[in-house]
Amino acid sequence: INAAVIAIDGPGGAGKGTISRLVAQDLGWHLLDSGALYRLTALAALRRDIEMTDDVALESVARELDVTFVSEDGHTRIMLEGEDVSADIRNEHVGGCASQVAAITGVRDALLARQREFAKTPGLVADGRDMGTVVFPEAPLKIFLTASAEERARRRHDQLRQAGQHASLSSLLKEIEARDARDMQRTVAPLRPAEDAVTIDTTELSIPDVVARIEALLSLRG
Ligand code: C5P
């Protein structure tokens, strides 16, 4: 991998998606939403009535995933087999299934090369759980974004409300904690900061503050 990569990892709801998109836009770099690949694998499996415990079938779903990312004026439409599933992959159920699917070694291996293909000049902002530890271990800048579970539940609550959906704060908090535990305790590529990652706690920071910090770190390292 020759292109510059900024790896942005952290638990769900820490703001990685928004922050990564804004940094990529500012720099004019490519963007990898690696969580979308796990969500797409889960969605494709759900549509085929495949159980989230069927490792062998899930690995082939991941390997054969027919997905395209279509970027238009700062937004990316995610297409599964030619159908726009950008909204479908964001619901809590698909998210929960994605985190089950993501614990399967064969699925992670199947998605590895696909993720590395995103690293192209002038550079890539890669958003996920293991960008700095597994997928792009040579990335010159690695960020670990966190926020308290309560704050992440609140943000998710607001996001859902804006999308016209409703979920109770306490159930969101429970789901977030369950997903954190699953992501951190799994044996393959558990969620943890890379040794050379810079941790940014976003609980009390605004989005522009976080973007500015990352860009300042990039100019120091680059
Ligand atoms: O980030 P997002 O919530 O879209 O990711 C969905 C799920 O995919 C996460 O809960 C996590 O289990 C998994 N994931 C992963 N490795 C990544 C990105 C996401 O295991 N690099």
UniProtKB/TrEMBL annotation:
<dbReference type="GO" id="GO:0036431">
    <property type="term" value="F:dCMP kinase activity"/>
</dbReference>
<keyword id="KW-0963">Cytoplasm</keyword>
<dbReference type="GO" id="GO:0006220">
    <property type="term" value="P:pyrimidine nucleotide metabolic process"/>
</dbReference>
<dbReference type="GO" id="GO:0005829">
    <property type="term" value="C:cytosol"/>
</dbReference>
<dbReference type="GO" id="GO:0015949">
    <property type="term" value="P:nucleobase-containing small molecule interconversion"/>
</dbReference>
<dbReference type="InterPro" id="IPR027417">
    <property type="entry name" value="P-loop_NTPase"/>
</dbReference>
<dbReference type="InterPro" id="IPR003136">
    <property type="entry name" value="Cytidylate_kin"/>
</dbReference>
<dbReference type="InterPro" id="IPR011994">
    <property type="entry name" value="Cytidylate_kinase_dom"/>
</dbReference>
<dbReference type="Pfam" id="PF02224">
    <property type="entry name" value="Cytidylate_kin"/>
</dbReference>
<protein>
    <recommendedName>
        <fullName>Cytidylate kinase</fullName>
        <ecNumber>2.7.4.25</ecNumber>
    </recommendedName>
</protein>
<feature type="binding site">
    <location>
        <begin position="10"/>
        <end position="18"/>
    </location>
    <ligand>
        <name>ATP</name>
    </ligand>
</feature>
<keyword id="KW-0808">Transferase</keyword>
<comment type="similarity">
    <text>Belongs to the cytidylate kinase family. Type 1 subfamily.</text>
</comment>
<dbReference type="GO" id="GO:0036430">
    <property type="term" value="F:CMP kinase activity"/>
</dbReference>
<keyword id="KW-0547">Nucleotide-binding</keyword>
<dbReference type="GO" id="GO:0005524">
    <property type="term" value="F:ATP binding"/>
</dbReference>
<keyword id="KW-0067">ATP-binding</keyword>
<keyword id="KW-0418">Kinase</keyword>
<feature type="domain" description="Cytidylate kinase">
    <location>
        <begin position="6"/>
        <end position="215"/>
    </location>
</feature>
